[in-house]
Amino acid sequence: MKIHHALEKPSTNRRLVVAIGFFDGFHRGHREIVRTLLRARRPGESTAILTFRNHPFTYLRPDHVPPLIDTLEERVDALGATGIDELFLVPFDQAIASLDARAFCESALRDTIGVRGVVIGENFRFGKARSGDATIARTILGEHGIDVYTVPPVMEGGERISSTRVRAALLEGNLAHVDALLADGYSLRGVVELGAGRGHDLGFPTANLAVPPQKTLPPDGVYTVTGRFDGRSYTGLVSIGTNPTFARGGAPNPRTVEVWLLDFAQTIYGAQLELRDFRFVREQRKFDSVEELNAQMQADATLVRYPSFQMKS
């Protein structure tokens, strides 16, 4: 996949079919848009996705930017895994925001990129003040012989799947529902960094993950997870929160992500670890003693050592 960081003509002379969207979380509705894109490609043509480095609200409504399900790197990886040929990863800025619907269709899509076809969701809005929709796109682009393919919403439980719906379920801690909405389930990646070393002292050596600040985490608590490292999977537990048992002076500790993996004894500082299959075990709470905390950790670990135990999802 070739990545373009500006709106420009691809170096190849092949005609182009482009899907447009922000694609945060890459949920099942996004997957259907990409499937339509791949089906719309004719022999000798290339496929592309046009998306933005930053959420449009960072420019249009900076006080209302939603929490992001994916980091930029995760979103690019998800789009690249679909098999598209080109990715237009451009900043959403004054140059984009000032284009009205006709200018976006004619200047950006027809003249600059040189599209033969465009794939969008039925609810897609574009252009200055969100003035353009699927009907307007079909009218304007149709004047130039450019096909517009619209994709109806994908439904789950009688409701449309959207990034907003996924975010809400994630922030509520309903990870089973989040996994059902996303094309490939929720995952979390971070670089392992040095921590306080308390886990090792308690008999549960943990990996502290440095998670990008823009990544939305589940609510504080303890979860069972699957960890992926060096091509292998490990079952384990992750604790997300402020370690209230070890708070000092009344001020909360920084929020951390600490992972314990069953039958894993490697030292992997500086390496990247991926977590998925989050399922809620319990809330974080302050224990009266380290011994009480350790007893609870032993009980939590039975859910990993003996997976037949029932868990709350």
The end-to-end span amounts to: 37 Å
Q: What is the helix fraction of residues, given as a range?
A: 25-40%
Order of strands side by side in the largest beta sheet? Answer: 1-4-3-2-5-6
Do you know the CATH topology of the largest domain?
Answer: Rossmann fold
> What's the level 1 CATH class of the largest domain?
Alpha Beta
Low-confidence stretches: none
Total number of strands: 14
The number of helical segments is: 10
Shape: elongated
Q: What proportion of the residues form beta strands (DSSP E)? A: 25-35%
User: How would a crystallographer describe the biggest sheet?
Assistant: 6 strands, parallel
SSE order in H/E notation?
Answer: EEHEHHEHHEHEEEHHEHEEEEEH
Q: Any idea what the radius of gyration is?
A: 23 Å
What is the total number of structural domains?
Answer: 2
| Integer average pLDDT | 91
Please describe what this structure looks like.
The protein has 313 residues and is α/β, with parallel strands linked by helices. It has 2 domains: 159 residues, 3-Layer(aba) Sandwich (Rossmann fold), CATH 3.40.50.620; 120 residues, Elongation Factor Tu (Ef-tu), domain 3. The chain has 10 helices and 14 strands. The strands form 3 sheets. A 6-stranded parallel β-sheet has the order 1-4-3-2-5-6, sandwiched between helices. It has a 6-stranded antiparallel beta barrel with strand order 9-10-13-12-11-14. A two-stranded antiparallel sheet has the order 7-8. Helix 6 links the parallel strand 5 and strand 6. Helix 5 packs across helix 6 and helix 7 runs antiparallel to helix 8. The longest helix has 16 residues. The two termini are 37 Å apart. The model has no long low-confidence stretch (mean pLDDT 91).
